[in-house]
Amino acid sequence: MGVGADASVEADGPAPGATGLLAFHQKRKQDSRDRLLAAAMAQFGARGYLPVSVEDIAAAAGVSRMTFYRHFSGKGALAIALFLSVAQEAMPRFLRIGRLDYRDPATVRAWIDGQFAADRENRALLSIFTQATVEGGEFVKRGHEYLADNIRALGEHIPAFALDPDRPEDRRRWIEAWLLIYELKDQSNHAALGSGVATDPLIIDIFTDRFVAFVNG
C-alpha cells in the first residue's frame, strides 16, 4: 500500500484549489446577479419600468450585456426575480392569519389593515410591478401562481382554504378563494398607490366581512 495508495487517493480527488476556485466563481456570479437586481431597482425607481432597457441596467450594474443575459433572459425575467424576492419576504406576514383567530372579525380586520400598511410602505415597488404587468405574459402568469401558492399555504392552517383546484367538488370553492385573495391583494395595491375606491377606509371592513364569511362558510 504505502506511497502508491496515497497517490491513487490524491489522483481521484479534486485538483488542489478546485473547490476554492469554484466557490470564488459562484460568489462572483452571485455578486453580479445581486448588482443587476440592485441596479434595476434603482433604475426602475428613478425612471419607471417601461423606459429602462437591458443596456441601462447592465451599465448601472457595471457589467456587460452578455453578463446580464447569463443571469436573466430579459428585463421581464429580472422583474419576475424582483417580484418573487419581495413576495417571499411578504408571505410569512400574509400567512400569519392562520396562527390567529381567523374567525374573529376584529382579528381579521387588524390583519388586513397590516397588509394594507405594508403595501403602503412598498408603494415604489408596487408601482414597478404594476408597470411590468403591462408587458403581460410570464410576469402575469407568475403572479397568478403566487396567488395559488397563497391559497395552498393558507389551507395548511385554515380548513376553508384546503382545496384542490383539480377536484370537481372543490373547483367552485377554490375559484371563490382565488378571487377573494386576488381582490384583497389587488385593492391593497391600489390603496397604496392612491388609486380609486381602494382608498376608502370602508374597503378594509368589506374585505373583513368577506374573509370571515368565507372561512365560516
UniProtKB/TrEMBL annotation:
InterPro entries: Homeodomain-like_sf, HTH-type_TetR-like_transc_reg, HTH_TetR. GO terms for molecular function: DNA-binding transcription factor activity; transcription cis-regulatory region binding. Keywords: DNA-binding, Transcription, Transcription regulation. It comes from the Bacteria. It holds the Pfam family TetR_N. Residues 53-72 bind DNA. The keyword Transcription regulation applies. The keyword Iron does not apply. Residues 30-90 form the HTH tetR-type domain. This is TetR/AcrR family transcriptional regulator. It comes from Alterirhizorhabdus solaris.
